[in-house]
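Replying to the earlier thread about multi-chain prediction with a worked example.

Input:
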Amino acid sequence: MKIKSERDFWAGLMFLLVGVAFAWGAMSYNFGSSARPGPAYFPFGLGMLLALLGALELFKALTIESEGGDPIGAIAWKPLIVILAAVALFGVALPRLGLVITLPALVLISSWASDEFSWKATVGNAVVLITMSWLIFIKGLSLIIPMWPTIFGASA
Amino acid sequence: MDLLNNLALGFGVAFTWINLAYAFGGAMLGTLIGVLPGLGPVATIAMLLPSIYALDATPALIMLAGIYYGAQYGGSTTAILINVPGESSSVVTAIDGYAMARKGRAGAALAAAGLGSFFAGCVGTIVIAAFAPPLTELAFKFGPAEYFSLMVLGLIGAVVLASGSLIKAIAMILLGLLLGQINTDVISGVPRYSFDIPELTDGIGFVTIAMGIFGFGEIIANLGRPAEHREVFTKNVTGLWPTKQDFKDAWPAVLRGTALGSILGVLPGGGALLAAFAAYTVEKKSRGRVGEVPFGQGNIRGVAGPESANNAGAQTSFIPMLTLGIPPNAVMALMVGAMTIKGIQPGPQVMTSNPELFWGLIASMWVGNAMLVILNLPLIGIWIKLLTVPYRLLYPAILSFCCIGLYTLNNNNFDVYMAVAFGVIGYAFYKLHCEPAPLLLGFILGPMMEENLRRALLLSRGDWTTFATRPLSAGLLAAAALMIVVVTLPSIKQKRAEAFKEEEDPAA
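Result:
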């Protein structure tokens, strides 16, 4: 069997698997009856429906010709990993190191994902952003965000 | 006159200094972000959500509405000046607007878009004020079965009008509905799909989904593409005021666009988008003055018509959200989410239980539109400067605001991690050509849909035919089925593909 549309194939497979997973997960809850539907009733139905559509999409991807095989194309690994790692690091570090360190770190790391990285512009950007964030979020909207590292005695 | 009394109450709320300030702030912020290339209203609103955490419900919604209009205006500005529509509904604006800009008539195009939108906004506001009460009345007659069917219709309508594969779009709705199932079951109190993670028993925050998929996912997708070269017509924006002839040409187009937009905006799904496309087609078909510029080469009617239509549509798309609690598009889904954050259950009861909020919001729509005209036309020079901000400086800023917003949502880093996960998912959707907007709609409607389905079944003692035997419910379901049948008919399918062809590229 040959894949006729790569995008549709993987999308269909994704829907199929997620649908089955949700329906399977629903089995551990009480299904109830149509007259008294339980917590599993709706997600089980939805999961099955999603799996069905996924299967349909898969079938389409394997039978209907598409222009040039509709390839997924190259995956942008660098931005994907760098951006999301920067965000995750922000989550880990903010409560411990405060915004003053965490935000510039986020800006520095994420800027590296671009092909046009330059130190000068990035540092400038970081300074502008930390000032703006302090003005808007902490002064302006009085949101509770740890500003300084906890070692310096400020509370998290 | 009820209408006048209600509007008076609304304007009383909207014209307090504090609310005026929030409407202004919202419009300003919305334009500021919306004018940045490649950021549509959904991403803009998602990114600016943290700005409302600390506010009361009424100013919060007024501000969000302002952000929405601002983002829309900003989107048209980018469409005209750099041929990058901020959102799908300004795709058609770009055709003639950009052509006008190339001929050095960017000022006239911007003014036509701004004034046309303002007029459409005024009409839209009156339409909402007039039609919301009777619709709310109707909504109170709805039982759970009708509500369930209405949501089915709303969701189907939303994808039928959208571009791309229908199967994928419906699958995305289902996926959204399923993600909405990760919570504690309201009826039995059983936590579902929580894997013993306490944060998941409250459900996934819609902000994490919106920011992860529309914020992070899009940034990654943009960075993965080679940098584009854009021509910005900054120096040519002189002579902002249109000529007398421009006015003469544009005003019938504005009227037609407004009428189309007001009607089509109420429809579920891409109301504003459909309105803009329809208005452009109507303008193209209707006869203009002898010797006017042909369409596609900078005809002012091609800007005024669609812009009025999409603004009127944006306005009237509030109707289903305000009266029924059912969001017709992704922006309204965000509004519903924001209302829920503020502790207001969207639905027909909002009008009676929070009349200040309801009418204040409607009045502030007009205020926001007026402010935008004042803001945009004289300040156009500033917005143009923003167009030249390079993306490599822009996206770290977007990331920063999103991260702070995610953290402050619950003062917890769990939401940040969830958004990272949705960033991966969002990028996968982008790669697989799965439009994410229906997912957000499904996610917002999921819990409501389940509750109504189960209540309806409980009332009918497990008889599924209740959905088909109650006339209102049957009608709604029939309409949904009809929509699917119609778009799958081969001839229409082809037309639909053609209609969306131009829209394939950058729109976000």
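The mean pLDDT of chain A is 84.

Feel free to reuse this layout for your own posts.
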